[in-house]
Design brief:
The complex is a heterodimer of chains A (about 110) and B (about 110). Helices cover about 0% and strands about 55% of the residues of chain A. Chain A is an all-beta fold and about 110 residues long. The termini of chain A are far apart. In chain B, strands 2, 4, 5, 6, 9, 10 and 11 form a seven-stranded mixed β-sheet that branches. The chains are: A mainly beta (about 110), B mainly beta (about 110).
Amino acid sequence: EDQVTQSPEALRLQEGESSSLNCSYTVSGLRGLFWYRQDPGKGPEFLFTLYSAGEEKEKERLKATLTKKESFLHITAPKPEDSATYLCAVQGGSEKLVFGKGTKLTVNP
Amino acid sequence: EPEVTQTPSHQVTQMGQEVILRCVPISNHLYFYWYRQILGQKVEFLVSFYNNEISEKSEIFDDQFSVERPDGSNFTLKIRSTKLEDSAMYFCGARASRQETQYFGPGTRLLVL
C-alpha cells in the first residue's frame, strides 16, 4: 500500500527564516510526486511535479527535490503570504493520488 | 493554473437525503476524480472516471455513491442517502492524461445534520 508521511506537522518561522519540509514515501513504481499548497477552506493548489530521483524544481521562494525515499520542499526567505498547509502526494501504479497529512506553515512578520 | 469549478460551495442536508455535487472540469481534460477531506484529516481518493466509466474506486466509494458526466461537461458525485460521517470537503480533480498534473477545484463543504 502506498504511504506518505510529512514532517513536521506544523512549522512556525519568522519572515526571512529559511527552512525545509519533508515528505517520506513508499510506493510501488513511482509515477510522480506532487506538492500542493492548501489555504484554509480551499482546494489544493498545484506547485510541483517530480518524476525521478535527483530532479529539482523551483518557483519563486520554493524549491522541491526528490530522492528514492523522500522529497523536500525548501522555502527560502519566506514571507507571511507563504503561510498555508503544504501537501505532498504520490502516484504509483494506479490513477489515484495518495496524500500526506500536510505541514501547516505559519510565517510571522 | 487551469481552473476546475465546483458547485455548490456549501451544502447542508439532513441525514438520509440525497445530494449531488457538481464539477466543471477544464475543457481539454479527460480524466476526472473525486476526493474528500474530513476536517483535520488527509485528502482521500474516492473515484476516478474516464471515457464515461469508473476506472478506479476506493473502499469509501460504496453503493451510496455514484458518478456521471451526463452532458459531456459537468461531472457529478451523487450521495444517495447521506450519513453524518459523509460531512467533509469534497474536491473534484481533473487531468489531461494519466501522466499529467491533477488539478483540483475549490471544493464543496458538505454538512450532514
